[in-house]
Structures are given as structure tokens and as C-alpha cells.
Amino acid sequence: MSLKTIEEKMNEGRQYRDINVSQFETRAEDDGRMTVRGYATTFDEPYTLWSENGYTVVEQVDPHAFDECDMSDVIMQYNHEGRVFARNKNNTLKLNIDLHGLEIEAELSGTQIGRQLYEEIKGGYTDKMSFGFHVKKDKREVTEDHENGTITVLRTITNIDKLYDVSAVSIPANDATNISARNFGEGVIEEIKKELLARRAFELAKAKIKFYMEEY
Description:
216 residues; alpha+beta; seven-stranded mixed β-sheet; four-stranded antiparallel β-sheet; 3 helices; elongated
């Protein structure tokens, strides 16, 4: 998948995140099936999305974020590239939401490249996952540390209305996850900067009015 294609998808609102899945379970059955199981995302576990110049964006997924999610056709890929390794429509990809997060189970023996991916995961060469999704709702909390001059934004994703894919990703994380995190993080930081400037301008205007009222 080219960078342009990734950017086009993100322009449509698609976001990408990755998670360390070093606890991926691999299982080879006597009938030849090769299954991997792990979590595409976890709930209520904050992670740093982006940080620059005293601003930090932290993100977490609410346990009810998938309650209204369209997961009717989800595929498993590698680095979000076009080849499909498993798909829930043909029952080679299973999705389960539990108290910990979104768990996936993929049966990879159907293709040669799927079997290769299984061996890579089993050997620990690939130990991260990324998922592509669209957010319908979120909430944000801003905390200012005046002593250290830093600002932290906690974003909680409360409603994911579409899950597109889950993807095993190489190390370091692929372009999709890096660019998605950076674009969103920088956008949030820019919004906070504008809000702070507007607030400070308002406070300054109030102070000037108070000064003139006291003087005259």
C-alpha cells in the first residue's frame, strides 16, 4: 500500500493504532490449522499518542467503544497491505469483545503467505498489531501543569462505528500508524493552542476593562 493510499484513507476519517502483542498465542493443530490469537486493542489502558514541545496527547479506548460498531467485513493484513490473510466473512477471522479488549483469532493456514506470517509471529519476529477504524465519538480532558509548563490531553474513544481491518505490523511500526498518530496528535495540539490563546486574550481583555474601571 502506498503512502498516498494511506493518506487518502485517513482523509476519509480512518485512523490506525498499534499495540504490542508479544503475548500472542500461536497454536498448530493436528489437522494442519495454524491459529494466532491476541488483542487488537485493550480497554482503559492509556498510551501516549503524540508528544511535542510540552504538549502530550494520551489516548485510551472505552470498554463500550465497540457497542455499536460495524464489524460485518473485517480483514487481517500485514502492514495494511492488500493481501488478505484472514476474514471474518469466511470464518477464518474471529472477533470477540471481552472485559480486556478486542480479541482476534485468525486461522492462517489457508495460504502460503499466511503460513509464513504464522511462523513470523510464532518466532517473535512480528509482535505488534495495528487496526484500522473510524471514530464516531470521543471525549477529551485537558490538564495543565503550570509548574512544569506542560499540557496533557486525555482522549477517550467512546464510539467506534466501523472496524476495517486488523494488521500484523513490522518493527518499527509502519507508515499508517505513525502518520495517523502524528496527524491526530498534532491536530489536537493545534486546537488546544488556539483555545489557550483565545482564553488568554479574553482574560487580558477582562483585566484591561477592570483596570480602566478602577482608574476612572
